[in-house]
Amino acid sequence: MESTETSFTFSELSISAPLLRAISEIGYETPSPIQAASIPHLLAGHDLLGQAQTGTGKTAAFALPILNAVDLNRREPQALVLTPTRELALQVAEAFQSYARHLRDFHILPIYGGQSMDVQLRQLRRGAHIIVGTPGRVMDHLRRESLNLDGLRTLVLDEADEMLKMGFIDDVEWILEHTPPKRQIALFSATMPEAIRKVAKRHLRDPKEARIEAKTATVEAISQRYWLVSGAHKLDALTRILEVEDFDAMIIFVRTKVATEELAEKLSARGYSAAALNGDLSQALREKAVERLKKKSLDILVATDVAARGLDVERISHVVNYDIPYDTEAYVHRIGRTGRAGRKGEAILFVAPREKRMLGAIEKATRQRIREMHLPSQQDIADRRVEQFRELVMSTLENEELSFYSNFVQHLAKEQKLTALDLAAALTFLAQKERPLLPALKPPASELSHDRGDAKTPRAPRRERPEQAGGEPRENRRREKGGDEEGVLYRLEVGRNDGVTPREIVGAIANEAGIPGRFIGHIKLYDEFSTVTLPADTTKQALKKLEKTWIMGKPIQIRLWADEKAGPSVSIRKPRKKAVSPE
Fold it and tell me: 3-state SS string over 370-427?
C-alpha cells in the first residue's frame, strides 16, 4: 500500500503544457495526496487500485493522465468512466472539460438514464474522445452497437463501492468483458469490500495501489452555512448577504483568476471596497493588497486558492465560497483564513443542486453539520440599514461638536415655520437617498426570483405623468456628460420599491455594457421602474448584454422609452425626487 504526502508540483510531472496551464488557472499548485499517489502510475500505463473518499481530488487523479494521452485526431472513445449516478457523471464530465479547456476540438460525452436516447445517439454519431456514463445506459448503447469501444485505452470505475451498493456490480463486470483486452483500468473506491477486490483481481493486471486515509478537520471556532443556489444570480445573492452580515473583513473564493478580477470589479461598482488576489499579480501587488486589508483601507479580497495560501489577517471575520472548491482539503484551507487568534469566524458556501455530493463530503471532512441559510429578505435589509444609520447618528451625537448645526436647524425651523421633526426627517432622507432606509417591502414576487409578480403600478392623475404629448421629459433632452451626441432615454423594470439606487444602476450598466459612468446620463427612480439616459451611439451588442442584466434580483428588461409611449397608455406616479446625475 502507498500513502504519500505531496512533495512535488504538477509541473514536475510529465503533463502537457495545455493541461498545466488549465490546472494553474483553476488554482491547483501541488497535487493532493491521492493525485500524487495515482498520477505517476497512470501516466506510466499501470493499472491502479485507488482507495479515497469523495472530495479528495480523485477526479483529477484519473482525468489528467487520460487527457494527457488522448489523441485529438481520433474522435472515437479512448476512455470510458463509469459512475454510479447521473449527477456524478455530469460532475466528472464538467471536471474533464475544465481541465481540457486549452485542448482544441476536444469532445466529452456524458450518457445516463433519463436523458433522451435520440439526443445521445446523435451525439455518439458525431463522435467523442471520452465517454462518462452510468452502467445501465452504457450497456444499452453497447447492445445497440451505438457505442464502439474498440479503440478504448483506459477504463475508470469511479466510486466502485457505491456501484456495488446500488446493485450495478454485475453490469460493471458485463461492460468490462466488452472492452479490449489490452486497456488500462483504474478502480477507485472509498472502501474495499471483498466483492470489489474480486473484480479488481479478475480484471486488473498487476495493479499499483494508492490508499489515502480520509482526513478530518475540526473547525469548532467557525460557524458554517450554505446557500442552495436556485433562481437567483449569485452576484445578487452575494450583495444581499453583504448587506446584512456584520463582517469586519472578508475573503471571497472563486475558482479562476479571471473570476477574481470580474467579481472584484462588480463589487467595487456596487460600493464595496474590494480587490482581486490571484497568481497573476506580482508579489509586491499581492503584499500591498494584504497590507491594505490589515490597515482597513480594504474590506474584501476576491481570491483563488493558490493566491490565498498562508494568508493570515486577524480581522478576516468571514469567508465566502462563491465557487465550491474541487476537494474538501481546499475547503478546509479556505475557511481556515477566518476564526484566527481565538476569534469566531463565519463561513458561507454557495452550493448548486448538482454539487450537494461535495457538500456531504465537506460535512464529513469537517465533522460539522453545515446549516442551510436563506437569503436576507428586503425587510432584513431594511432593518439592517436602519440599525446602521441609528448607530451612526448616536456615534455622531457622542463624538462630534454639533452646536453650529443645532443653531442652524433652530434658525431654519423658525424661519420656515417647521418643526425640528420635519427637518430631521428631511435631513435623514438626504443623508440616505443613495441608500434608502426603506427598500422594497413587498411579497416574494420582488424577492430573488425569475417571477416579476402581478403587482401593477398604481395609476396616478394624468397631469402627474412625466411624459406629455410633446415627447420625452424636458430634463432628459440634453447632451450627455462627456459625449458629443444627444442621449436616448430607456426604461428599466427595477425601481424604488426594489431598494435600487442610482449607484446600482450605474454599476450594472458600466460592468455589463462597458459604458463608462461619465457617459451614463440622468437616472430617475419611480416606485416600480426607473429611467436612464444612455449615449445615442450605444451599440446593439451593449444593449443585448443589458437585456440579460439583473439588478437587485430582477431582470431589468431594458427598452426604449419611445417603445413605452407607443404602447398602451400607462399612468405612473410622479417621481418623489429630482433626477439624479451619477458622479
Answer: CEECCCCCHHHHHHHHHHHHHHHHHHHHHHCCCHHHHHHHHHHHHHHCCCHHHHHHHH
Give the domain range for residue 342.
222-372
CA distance 507 to 459: 30
pLDDT of residue 152: 96
Domain count, the chain: 4
Instruction: Using the structure block, give the residue that is written with the C-alpha cell 458561507.
Output: 348
**Residue 439 has which C-alpha cell?**
427598500
Q: What does the block give as the cell for 238?
A: 452575494
Q: What is the pLDDT of residue 392?
A: 80
Distance CA 290, CA 320 (A): 17
Same domain, 207 and 121: yes
Same domain assignment for residues 472 and 405: no
Q: Is 156 helix (H, G, I), strand (E, B) or coil?
A: strand
Mean pLDDT of 249-270: 90
- Tell me, yes or no, whether 580 lies in a domain: no
pLDDT for residue 456 is more than 60: no
In this structure, the answer to whether residues 241 and 174 fall within a common structural domain is: no
Helix, strand or coil, per DSSP, at residue 80:
strand
Cβ pair 493, 486 in contact under 8 A = no
256 in any annotated domain: yes
Give the whole-angstrom CA distance, residue 581 versus residue 522: 5
Asked if residues 80 and 151 have their Cβ atoms less than 8 Å apart, the reply is: no
The C-alpha cell at 47 is 493499472
Q: Domain containing 532 — which CATH number? A: 3.30.70.330
498 class by beta-carbon count within 10 Å (0-12 exposed, 13-18 middle, 19+ buried): buried
Residue 551 identity (one-letter amino acid): I
Residues 176-225: tens digit of each pLDDT: 999 998 899 999 998 888 989 999 999 999 999 998 876 555 566 789 99
Question: Which range is least confidently modeled, 333-337, 490-494, 560-564?
Answer: 560-564
- Per DSSP, the three-state class of 276 is strand
**Could you tell me if residue 577 is inside a domain?**
no
Confidence label for 582 from pLDDT (cuts 50, 70 and 90) = very low
